[in-house]
Known about the structure:
The structure holds two protein chains of two kinds. By secondary structure, chain A is mainly alpha-helical. Chain A has helices at residues 8-17, 25-50, 70-95, 101-123, 127-145, 151-184, 192-198, 204-222, 231-237, 240-259, 261-265, 273-292, 298-318, 322-353, 364-367, 369-382, 389-404, 407-433, 448-451, 458-476, 480-491; strands spanning 54-55, 67-68. Chain B has seven helices and no strands.
Amino acid sequence: MSVIWILFPPLIAAALCGIPVRRSWVPGATVASSLIVLTLAAQMAWRVAAGGSVTDGLNPGWLNWIAVDGLSALILLLIAFVATTAAIYSVGYMAHENLTPGKLRLYHANFNLFVFSMLAIPLLAEPTLVWIVVELTTLCSALLVSFDNTREALEAAWKYVILSLMGAGFALFGFLVLFAAMHAGGGGTYTWAGLVIAAPRMPPLLMQTAFLLILIGLGTKVGLVPMHTWLPDAHSQAPSPVCALLSGIETTSILYVILRLFPVMQAVPGAHAETWALVLGLISVGTAAFLLLQVTDYKRLLAFSTVEHMGIILTAVGLGASAADYGAMQQIVTHAVTKSFCFFAAGATLLAVGTREIAAVRGLIRRAPEVGAALIFGGLAITGAPPFAVFLSEFAILKAGLAQGHYVATGLLAVFIVIAFFGVMVHLNRMVFGAWQGAAAVSDPPGPQQAERFRLPFSCALALILAAMPVIVFGVYIPPPLHALLKQAAAALAR
Amino acid sequence: MSDATRQLVENLNALATGLFLLTAFGLVAMRQARGCLHLFIAQSLLLAASAALLGLRYDSPHLYGVALVNLISKPIIVPWLLRKVAPAGFYTRREIDQVLNIPTTLAIALALAIGAYFLGVPLANAVGPGYLGPNVPIGIAGLLLGAFTLTVRREALPLLLGLLAMENGAFLAGISIAHDLSMLVELAIATDGLIIVFIVGVLVRAVEKHVGSTAIGELASLRESPARPVTRKAAP
Lengths: 495, 236
């Protein structure tokens, strides 16, 4: 089986969405394609977990451009999983929006193209080609962010495009410098694996420059502080299933590209790649933890939590131990599944109450019990409360940090995680369990319509249940194949 | 190639890159949107010229390819695409208030260009012996000035051109240090530039339709502030 087949279902589905057929068929195409992608990704991940990397049997010239190892198989699997739940969620969520058939087709075509561009990131191994698909993720998702066509959504999309592409400009130069460094060091094949082999011969100055340019450039798209300013806007204004994709998996798959550079930088004396990761990571976690306290919009709250988690993953990699790498990989998994669940719950809340204001939502558990329960479950899970998945991975990272002797960094990380826990829970707790307090509940006064119970669309409920399963399971038990895959992925960081 | 021709080619490349730097300055400061577009086209032509000259110098068919791709995509397809997707009146806009006034903007731009020189020379030295010309420092200057354009401009077209100018800058440096990058990659990057123009054009059209202006810089309602109006859209 050729690994490249996994790219075709989303492309075909996107093309099918262009055909004007019955509107009920359009979401079906997206769901079907993402199910196929999920099957293929799971199969691939299984093979990688069982034994080593999978290289595609294309023509010799292209041979090295497509490669799948533990790390990329893990990212592929996550993209496929989140895309599947988001596709299922989209069916009911978009039906609620009363879209014209054209607009619905546009949404699904864009959705599939976005998934396609994300799937290409871990599959490709040639850095400049990866840069191009990273650009494509921005461009394919821009119109999804602005999908609501409100002033705010357009502003968010604009900021997203300009800042991400600005970062991409720096990253492009970084990748060109990396290529030059390889050339100056005697050449080789310009792929992730080839870079690791050639690294000891490459001029350190060029490597450091390239690393910093790429870290800053792609870090903009990951949402690392201080380049994060666009992220809360874009991740809160997009329709909720898109938010789940953006926050849950897009940020992670860009972070994956940065992680690919760490084994290369290992060979450079005095490069301090780990220090950069540690510092930028801690700044991101800290800033996000404090910003969480003052948000007024619950989708922005979750977006800031993404900034926090990206910081945690980068910090874990910066700790520079194989145990911390394993923790980082686990965190990548737990964050992706939990954050997508959270955005599904937030979307359900938006459907139930019609506002994004935290202050305007009180007593959600009485009005829409299943939505309120999902929201508080998501809040607890994402902030790392036991017994959910994120708790285990954060615990693994903190433990590895202490074992490595990074007491200050680990201590700071723990403090920030605790602050973020309170930041998120204070807001969500009020929304779900808070009592009506006079003028606080502006958009939803207690009255006759409050008695009318909100009904969550079936597909949304299904997506919530599917997304909740790994959040619960991975909190108590890591299945052996996943454990093997995580080990392989951590080994790709080569320490 | 004889020494005299080589000298001539190197001098011509220096001239092209020097003019490239001037266009980058112009993009930061030019008020008229249409003027910005003309400057951007000139910049892309100069990039193509530099690529062709370096191709001659290194005897590299790859660089002729880069020159050709640039010659076709930016001066011809970009304006055509903009006419297709962007709203009417996009070109005729004049920027009334930049974030900074023009003398200050130019002073900062100058400082950036000087900084780029000090960044670029050690980089070029690390790449190794052989002719690189002024491409690396001027390319970095183009990259930084493009990024600076994005921070001081408010009108949509100069912002879009700032993005593309950043890419031009990265390429101007790239063709001298990474001149045997695969042709497929060059083509893909050029295509990517066109997709940027298309998507940004569509966005600008939507902004103009819903907000009534192409002055994107004035959109600034998203921030941490209490009592924002409820943003959920009513069904159409």
